[in-house]
Design goal:
The complex is a heterodimer of chains A (829) and B (284). By secondary structure, chain A is an alpha+beta fold. Among the domains of chain A are: 176 residues, 2-Layer Sandwich (Aldehyde Oxidoreductase, domain 4), CATH 3.30.365; 211 residues, Aldehyde oxidase/xanthine dehydrogenase, molybdopterin binding domain (Aldehyde Oxidoreductase, domain 4), CATH 3.30.365. Chain A is built from 24 helices and 28 strands. In chain A, strand 20, helix 18 and strand 21 form a beta-alpha-beta unit. Chain A starts with a helix and ends in a 19-residue tail after the last helix. Chain B is of the alpha+beta class and 284 residues long. Chain B folds into three domains: 47 residues, Uridine Diphospho-n-acetylenolpyruvylglucosamine Reductase, domain 2, CATH 3.30.43.10; 116 residues, Uridine Diphospho-n-acetylenolpyruvylglucosamine Reductase, domain 3, CATH 3.30.465.10; 103 residues, CO dehydrogenase flavoprotein, C-terminal domain (Enolase-like, domain 1, 2-Layer Sandwich), CATH 3.30.390.50. Chain B is built from twelve helices and 14 strands. In chain B, strand 12 and strand 13 form a beta hairpin. The chains are: A alpha+beta (829), B alpha+beta (284). Chains A and B meet through helix 5, helix 23 and helix 24 of A and strand 2, helix 2, helix 7, strand 9 and helix 12 of B.
Chain lengths: 829, 284
């Protein structure tokens, strides 16, 4: 046995890297936790929100009388009742100095601007009574033409969403690499180019579709107010609600109990949160509001929603020379928390992993009479990644090059890291070639290419295609100074503290509030390694502003990179304090102490040791501790990274296309992701799978469809198609590991990678299958009908009919047009 | 969401049920498996005065053999249909199509009779019943009557059931020795059919002696593809002959246009799916 092996045997098993099962899952999966809607407080009243059935109108009269007289009704309010105190839903990201923000009332007063906007609130002694009275609220509307289409909305003379504004454009954001000094002159690059390829891509609107609907409970006690909310961002919410409602911040406590998913959809200050607080304050009673799924799909913010015009310049050999992007980004009716920032954030990701010498980005934020858009898994980066990965394929076709060869020719090589891109970002680490080679092997690339040729030659009705996405993304939101330079309203630091309890158990308080990610498990693994205590001895506390006073919460794949690092830094401080106590107790010099497996040993003196858990008890008793030191080894830390982290990877999709029906079916999917150092492989695998499901869903299934009147046709899960496990293929996943240099864990972030990477791989694969039949683009989602039309009629598959399916007798939501309630429901159901 | 208030009756016999329906007021809804009724009530698209729940009526459940037919109780659940030996032997098409209905949870609650009486044009079982020439036994206070499938489906979500009547059982002629196949086209596993085709084919040697084709979601009611059936009658059992006959599948259909498919695409799909269904049913 060699010395090295012996040492390895004696060293404690590291927790980091172990596929620990998530310690929070038992209570989450069995429902043995208190979700917000489970809260019951003495005297609690129930809210129901009356919502606009029209997309655009002036409110001409409101009659609440019948509802007020209904049984068990406590109060009924209209927008007029809160006009003076409701303020505006805050927008924290004014991306340009002259951005136009019309203000966002939580409840409409004089006009409504999207279907589902709150127009009245019923407060009742039971949820059923509140819901019964909703139908008795009588509001008259003077209907205005709805603004629904982005390209129409920006034309001269277009109907206006907000008639007090000059246009439907909120802002015009420009990033020009030439002006920024990060690249050459873009117009010149295009003027000099041998080849230019231009495309128009559409990012359809998506609905976050988190599992737990939004829910709020508010309890006023004296001049203190406690709010429980199913939110991703209790800390952000506290600051914002204090600013909006005037409840002083120190009188406001926000609790995010266990939260059932968000995907960015709960990164928001919701109108219903403001309204619940205002009603509770007005009545002096606790109140609860929980949305129905129909309300959630209609009134919680949506994601994506862009028309992308993208041009790429290259020479005949396939060296890219320039990139030009113009976006129309759908804001919806109002600006919510980071509505304008989502497409602007994407500006920095359009160049992808390629060495473009010149780049210009322009984006118009455009108002429409639809529910606002905001963050949704990836937030700006999926849109950018889709556009660049799609147009790289189009350029390859134009140049008659292999799409992978074109990518290889232009991507950043491993030895070039750190690499500053034309968008001014410094990519930290990676190896695109290594990930690609591994993914090709996982897929069985050569065999599938051979089969593709066979099917093509034999004219098989089922054709096969292979699509690539060699992506990177920016994670670990983010360096506070960078966010400041982008006019974002807050920083991107994260906070953590560690409390050493007398019995040696450890409480970790994190400011990074989870909503299903597994923070409790991963943070326990980090702390177990840092302090040398058992995994089971660590408890992670989060989500309550009274317990965890400082935090920036969970979004943008930031939790482990930023919040996890804060935990590590706090643990380092605990060890440093404990070292002083240990030296005192062991009557040794601090410099002579080694810390390993939770114990301080005096170097060269076997048996002279004290454990950190014993030190916790000693400090609690405080009978014997060093002079000049407080009797505590607790510590807190705040981490603010100096750079983003940049996960990357190669995703390859093999797709079968039934040319007779247009049905597409994923034959095989291989992905190799570099997310830096992996703390828990099980959680990473889960994040990749979930991300893939959502990214594939954008390509194939999901779309928020509005009809010509602005009604949300996809108002239930019958028509808003979220795939289940039965609809998705097996995923062949792998990893390469290039540690992120910007944090001590070496992690890059994984929460959004699968969702960002997969969409273009899937669409590229479908197009590769049918390109020889004359198809060059198909709109997302790739419904069988669209694919069939593109193959047999040309074009991009065209628009879908906007009527909902006839399931449930044509049932959509209460506000969807064309619903028949009387005629249909004969017979047994 | 929460349904509007309603009165509720849970009879234990068919007679009690008929009385409860008669006494239930203006707007009575029958609760079978509830997989369509409960959602529309929760969405408040239906607000019946009375709900009559058939789940405690034992005599409405189960499958029995009766001469040259099998008789399926209206309240037999989808999952019981899938596992039933008589259906497996004499009408396996019903089990095959039922396996494609929604998901496991729905199939444990939803019932054969409920799905037929609901008559959703996107539902799978009406076209299957039509293709198998099933007969519907309807009970009323005045007695029972039997309606052939071709007359049962009247219009969109509308059947021959009169006010006060209940669908109590469905008689399906034995189809032993027939080849059958249900070809369903949908975007995700648990979704309704965009278009589907039920094929029932009897071969005599190298020829197709008889074919019965039911179409799902090609109009407000399930349809028989009469043109295809005529074209298949007596033809040589070849893929080419089946393909030629399937070209008639869109005749006399009037499908709707919705998010999943516009009418012209449905009329294309039905030809492809008919070809596939008949090819499989004929064992080609």
């Amino acid at each position: 046995m060699t010395v090295t092996e012996n040492a390895a045997e004696l060293a404690p098993a590291k927790e980091v890297g172990q596929p620990r099962r998530r310690k929070e899952d038992a209570r989450l999966i069995t429902g043995r936790t208190t979700w917000t809607d489970n809260m019951v407080l003495p005297g609690m009243l129930h809210l129901a929100v009356v919502r606009s059935p029209v997309a655009h109108a002036k409110i001409t009269s409101v009659d609440l009388t019948a509802a007020q007289q209904a049984p068990n009704i406590v109060a009924v309010f209209s927008g007029r009742d809160f006009a003076e105190e409701q303020g505006s839903i805050p927008c924290a990201w004014p991306v340009t100095p002259d951005m136009v923000n019309p203000g966002h009332p939580s409840i409409a007063v004089d006009e409504v601007n999207h279907v589902g906007e709150a127009v009245a609130i019923v407060v009742a002694r039971s949820k059923a009574a509140a819901q019964d009275a909703v139908e008795l609220v009588d509001i008259d509307y003077d209907v205005l033409p709805p603004v629904l289409d982005l390209e129409t909305a920006v034309q001269d003379g277009a109907n206006l969403v907000h008639d007090q504004l000059a246009s439907n454009t909120s802002y015009h954001f420009v990033f020009d690499a030439g002006d920024a000094g990060t690249g050459a002159d873009t117009d010149q690059a295009f003027a000099d180019a041998e080849v230019v390829v231009s495309r128009r891509f559409v990012q359809q609107r998506l609905i976050p579709a988190f599992m737990e609907p939004r829910s709020v409970v508010v309890q006023p006690q004296g001049d203190n107010v406690t709010m429980w909310s199913s939110t991703q961002v209790p800390h952000v919410l506290r600051v914002m609600l204090a600013m909006v409602t005037g409840v002083p911040e120190h009188k406001l406590r926000i609790i995010a109990p266990d939260v059932g998913g968000g995907f960015g959809g709960k990164l928001q200050v919701n109108p219903e949160e403001v309204l619940s607080l205002l009603v509770a304050r007005r009545l002096g009673k606790p109140v609860k509001w929980t949305e129905t799924r129909s309300e959630s799909l209609m009134a919680a913010h949506h994601g994506r929603g862009q028309v992308q015009y993208i041009d790429v310049a290259a020479d005949r050999e396939g060296n890219v020379k320039g990139l030009r992007v113009r976006l129309l980004a759908d804001m919806g009716a109002y600006l919510r928390l980071i509505t304008p920032g989502v497409p602007a954030l994407g500006a920095f990701m359009f160049p992808g992993i390629y060495k473009f010498p010149a780049y210009r980005f322009e984006c118009d934020g455009v108002f429409t009479n639809k529910v606002p858009t905001d963050a949704y898994r990836g937030a700006g980066r999926p849109e950018a990644t889709f556009a660049i990965e799609r147009i790289m394929d189009e350029l390859a076709v134009e140049l008659d090059m292999d799409p992978l060869e074109l990518r290889r020719k232009n991507w950043i090589n491993a030895e070039e890291f750190p690499f500053t891109t034309v968008a001014g970002l410094e990519y930290d680490s990676g190896n695109y070639d290594m990930a690609t080679e591994q993914a090709l092997e996982l897929l069985g690339y050569d065999e599938l290419r051979a089969e593709q040729q066979q099917r093509r030659q034999s004219g098989d009705p089922v054709q096969l295609g292979i699509g690539f996405s060699t992506f990177t993304e920016m994670c670990g939101l983010a360096p506070s100074r960078v966010l400041g330079s982008l006019a974002y309203g807050a920083g991107g630091w994260e906070s953590a503290s560690i409390r050493m309890l007398p019995t040696g158990k450890v409480e970790v308080v994190t400011g990074s509030t989870p909503h299903g990610q597994g923070h409790e498990t991963a943070w326990s693994q980090l702390v177990a390694d840092q302090l040398g205590v058992p995994f089971e001895d660590v408890e992670v506390l989060h989500g309550d502003t009274a317990v965890s006073p400082r935090g920036m919460d969970t979004y943008g794949s930031r939790s482990l990179v930023v919040g996890g690092t804060a935990v590590v830094k706090a643990a380092e401080k605990v060890v440093a304090k404990a070292r002083k106590v240990a030296a005192h107790l062991l009557e040794a010099s601090e410099d002579d102490l080694d810390f390993s497996a939770g114990k301080f040993n005096v170097r060269g003196t076997p048996g002279a040791e004290v454990g950190i858990q014993e030190i916790a008890l000693a400090v609690f008793a405080a009978h014997n501790y060093p002079e000049g030191m407080e009797p505590s080894i607790d510590a807190e830390a705040t981490f603010d990274p100096v750079n983003f982290s940049f996960p990357h990877g190669t995703h390859i999709c093999a797709m079968e296309v039934d040319t007779e029906t247009g049905m597409v079916k994923i034959r095989k999917y291989a992905s190799v992701d570099d997310v830096g150092v992996i703390v828990n492989p099980l959680i990473v695998e889960g994040q990749i799978h979930g991300g893939l499901a959502q990214g594939i869903a954008q390509a194939l299934y999901e779309e928020a469809v509005y009809d010509a009147d602005g009604n949300l046709t996809t108002g239930s899960f019958v028509d808003y198609l979220v795939p289940s496990a039965a609809d998705l293929p097996h995923f062949d996943t792998g990893n390469t590991v290039h540690a992120a240099p910007g944090n001590p864990i070496g992690a890059k972030g994984v929460g959004e990678a699968g969702c960002i990477a997969s969409t273009p791989a899937v669409v590229n694969a479908a197009l590769d299958a049918v390109r020889h039949l004359g198809v060059s683009d198909i709109l997302m989602p790739l419904t069988p009908e669209r694919v069939w039309r593109a193959i047999h009629h040309g074009g991009d598959g065209g628009d879908r009919a906007t009527a909902g399916t006839n399931a449930y007798g044509g049932a959509q939501t209460e506000s969807t047009a064309g619903v028949s309630t009387d005629a249909s429901l004969g017979g047994e159901l | 969401m929460i349904p509007a208030p309603f009165a509720y009756a849970r009879p234990t016999t068919i007679d009690e049920a008929l009385q409860a329906v008669a006494a239930g007021g203006e707007d009575v809804k029958i609760l079978a498996g509830g997989q369509s009724l409960i959602p529309v009530m929760r969405l408040r698209l239906a607000a019946p005065e009375t709900v009559v729940d058939l789940n405690k009526i034992a005599e409405l459940r189960g499958v029995r053999e009766e001469g040259d037919a099998i008789v399926i109780g209206a309240m037999t659940t989808h999952s019981d249909v899938i596992g039933d030996p008589l259906i497996a032997r004499y009408a396996p098409l019903i089990a095959e199509a039922t396996e494609t209905v929604a998901d496991r949870q729905v199939r444990h609650r939803g019932t054969f009779g409920g799905a037929l009486a609901h008559a959703d044009p996107a539902g799978d079982l009406p076209a299957v019943a039509l293709a198998l020439d099933a007969e519907f036994v309807l009970a009323g206070l005045a007695g029972r009557r039997t309606v052939p499938a071709a007359e049962f489906f009247v219009d969109y979500l509308t059947t021959a059931l009169e006010e006060g009547e209940l669908l109590v059982e469905i008689r399906v002629p034995k189809h032993e020795g027939w080849g059958t196949h249900y070809e369903k086209f949908n975007r995700v596993a648990q979704a309704w059919s965009i278009v589907a085709v039920a094929a029932v084919v009897r071969r005599e040697g190298g020829r197709i002696a008889e074919a019965k084709i039911g179409l799902t979601n090609m109009g407000p009611t399930p349809l028989r593809a009469a043109g295809v059936e005529a074209a298949l009658s007596g033809v040589e059992a070849t893929r080419e002959a089946v393909a030629a006959a399937a070209g008639h599948a869109a005749e006399n259909t009037s499908p709707s246009s919705d998010l999943n498919a516009q009418a012209d695409y449905r009329q294309h799909l039905v030809q492809v799916l008919t070809r596939r269904a008949v090819t499989a049913a004929a064992g080609l």
